[in-house]
Amino acid sequence: MPARGDDPPEPPAVTVLCITGWCRNGSTIIGNILNEIPGVFHVGELHFLWKNAAGKGANSLCGCGKVLTQCPFWAEIVALSTPTGVSLDDFAAEVIRRQRACVRTRHTWRVLRRGLDRADIRAHAALMSQTYRAIADRSGATVIVDTSKIPGEAALLPHLDGVRPYFVHLVRDPRAVADSWREPKDYVYAMSATKSTLYWQGFNLATEAITRRYPNRSAFMRHEEFIADPAGTIDRLLSLCGTDPAANPVHGRIVELHANHTVTGNPDRFRAGPTELREADDRWKTGLSGSARLAASMLAGPRLRRYGYGAAAVPRPSAQAEPPTAKPRQATKHR
After folding, report:
1. Angle 193-213/290-300 helices, nearest 10 degrees?
2. Does domain 14-334 have CATH number 3.30.1360.20?
3. Where are the domains positioned within the chain?
4. What is the pLDDT of residues 137-181, one digit of tens each?
């Protein structure tokens, strides 16, 4: 107990592992694998918590299957963050307004240069600091995995009180990304190869600015590396944020997934049980039209080769990988 007149000790900083880049890069499955590790909690795309909780977003379900405002975990977090006397609808509208004004992808460079230089961004930073702390207290986690993939939000993390951020720039071949966007999936709409690749360029350019600014807290990773060696990839992420890789739940290409509390993300986040991780990410070679493939390749420009998507192939997993703990035919195939 502190002596009379002394301030209570500050709680330890919350480690936030921020996985960013453009969408359809595999962040949801990676986050859910990390979620299986004691002391690690995957929140999914936290950026959309208030929007989705108020029914203003693409979906309002938690990864556990309940509506966010009826999920015991998020109902408490949302209630704690909403000011007394203000409705959730009104507060969500204010949060959305601040996000659009301060932490969109286009704002990344301003946040990096100027930090908390105006009232709106200071208010949003205070909300995010409070929310990360509440999540840590409620979950008992020491590491929070946030897969929002909004570079403006990621750039804000070093300015949050009580938060220790680490950044993972996760990229995927833009042609595979374009193929993934070809058809709608549950609450996720479709997008053309041209639009997808333009976003791919913008989000990755902004993420590069963040990792250049904080190189000692950042890692670059390709989705294809995860496909080739899932266990090794998870080891790298755990080591980045100071977590013991011995807790890695991946065995060969199988991981046992349980219910999670992701705010949103790829609809596959609702799957649980033994899950087989696919061995290749080359469906785009046959599924994507020639014109779409050309558009993605041309618009990706030099980054296509810079990120390793030239002639060289991604190496296959080591033959020494651990054998699976469950038979593949019993597992849900992750796609």
Report:
1. 30
2. no
3. 14-334
4. 999 999 999 999 999 999 999 999 999 999 999 999 999 999 999
